[in-house]
Fold this sequence. Notes:
The protein is mostly helical. Helices cover 93% and strands 0% of the residues.
Amino acid sequence: KAIFRSSIQFPILLYFKFHSVNSVIYYL
């Protein structure tokens, strides 16, 4: 279950990290 949970959390974290970078570029 831990592996399954991390495999779901990783893409979400990656998405939010990418989204935050896009937001920073957008606001600049």
